[in-house]
């Protein structure tokens, strides 16, 4: 057992008051891993506050106990330990930054991003894991903590959503083995999770998808597909943040495309760029050039400036990348 793992288990034994937090713009892996760790600690009799400053996207409201996730810590809580799940860096933790200054606070970083900055007292980062949910499952098993139906469903959802329901190349035999065990040993129904995540879309999100699909463009001999989601489209079809997350996959799914890009205008002069790729390109490296990060096949970065200028800048950069490959 690694040092940080052994230390993590002794921290769980020794401490009483825990905060568990996930990343901003939470996805299924963030919420699922947050719940799995939070509920495990509660079962051990610990005082736990589960935090996501942006709240829980409604698509994950089917997960048991999601309503216990709060946006802020209660004033008198005075946590001893902060556990961050699925966060590649400190700035992405969806919590009031004042917590980092608490004297004596032990911080734990449970993650699987290859770009993780190792920002905590204890960094438990497995870049080969398909999801933080996979890291969490391994921890619970190694630590002999009891998994129940609710925790199993949270972990399954974390892994299923982060692997595109076991389609992405991050999906390993171990990923499927965990999923298999969760389905076999607990009350986890894959079809129900898929239905909750994929078949409860809002009418607006489907209409907006229609606009997006009609605007996708190809460059670099069809190796790059890109599309802009601007404020005018978002005000025509208001949707939750989470609902636009999957749009970029349509750009990537076109035959011959190696890089799919979605430029989302969060507000004027603020753009979130999502990167997806096939095995031909490691987009975590390309996103890192713009100060972002993530995984080889899925990454992101934030850029400031007028959206049309950002599009030009990024497409020029990708063009240079391809020129350099020749
Ligand atoms: Mn993840």
Précis, in short:
This protein has 326 residues and is an alpha/beta fold. The chain has helices spanning 3-14, 28-43, 132-142, 149-162, 173-185, 190-198, 203-215, 231-236, 247-252, 283-289, 307-325, and strands at residues 17-21, 47-51, 69-70, 81-85, 106-111, 122-125, 217-219, 224-229, 259-267, 270-277, 293-294, 298-304.
Tell me about this structure.
The chain is α/β, with parallel strands linked by helices. The chain has 2 domains: 3-198, inorganic pyrophosphatase (n-terminal core), CATH 3.90.1640; 203-325, Diaminopimelate Epimerase, Chain A, domain 1, CATH 3.10.310.30. Helices cover 39% and strands 19% of the residues. It contains 11 helices and 12 strands. The chain has helices at 3-14, 28-43, 132-142, 149-162, 173-185, 190-198, 203-215, 231-236, 247-252, 283-289, 307-325; strands spanning 17-21, 47-51, 69-70, 81-85, 106-111, 122-125, 217-219, 224-229, 259-267, 270-277, 293-294, 298-304. The strands form 2 sheets. It has a 6-stranded parallel β-sheet with strand order 3-2-1-4-5-6, covered by helices on one side. Helix 2 links the parallel strand 1 (17-21) and strand 2 (47-51). Helix 4 packs across helix 6. The longest helix is centred in the last third of the chain and has 19 residues, at 307-325. It is globular. The mean pLDDT is 96. Bound molecules: manganese (II) ion (MN). The site of manganese (II) ion (MN) has 6 residues, from loops.
């Amino acid at each position: 057992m690694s040092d940080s793992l052994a230390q993590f288990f002794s921290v769980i034994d020794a401490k009483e008051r825990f905060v568990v937090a996930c990343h901003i713009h939470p996805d299924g892996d963030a919420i699922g891993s947050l719940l799995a760790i939070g509920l495990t600690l509660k079962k051990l009799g610990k005082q736990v506050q589960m935090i996501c400053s942006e709240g829980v996207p409604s698509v994950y409201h089917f997960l048991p106990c999601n309503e216990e996730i709060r946006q802020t810590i209660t004033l008198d809580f005075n946590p001893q330990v902060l556990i961050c799940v699925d966060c590649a860096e400190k700035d992405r933790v969806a919590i009031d930054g004042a917590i980092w200054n608490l004297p004596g606070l032990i911080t734990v970083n449970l993650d699987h991003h290859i770009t993780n900055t190792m920002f905590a007292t204890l960094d438990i980062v497995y870049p080969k894991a398909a999801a933080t949910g996979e890291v969490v499952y391994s921890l619970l098993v190694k630590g002999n903590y009891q998994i129940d139906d609710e925790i199993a469903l949270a972990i399954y959802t974390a892994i299923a959503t982060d692997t595109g329901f076991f389609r992405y190349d991050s999906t390993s035999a171990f990923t499927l083995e965990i999923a298999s065990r969760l389905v076999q040993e607990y009350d986890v129904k894959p079809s129900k999770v898929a239905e909750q995540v994929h078949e409860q879309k809002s009418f607006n999100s489907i209409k907006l998808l229609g606009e997006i699909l009609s605007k996708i463009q190809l460059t670099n001999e069809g190796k790059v597909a890109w599309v802009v989601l601007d404020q005018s489209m978002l005000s025509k079809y208001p949707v939750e943040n989470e609902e636009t997350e999957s749009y970029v996959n349509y750009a990537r799914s076109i035959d011959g495309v190696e890089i799919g890009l979605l430029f989302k205008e969060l507000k004027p002069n603020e753009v979130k760029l999502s990167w997806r790729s096939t095995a031909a390109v490691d987009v975590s490296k390309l996103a890192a050039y713009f100060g972002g990060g993530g995984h080889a096949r899925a990454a992101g970065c934030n850029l400031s400036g007028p959206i049309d200028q950002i599009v030009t800048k990024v497409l020029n950069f990708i063009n240079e990348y391809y020129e350099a490959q020749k």
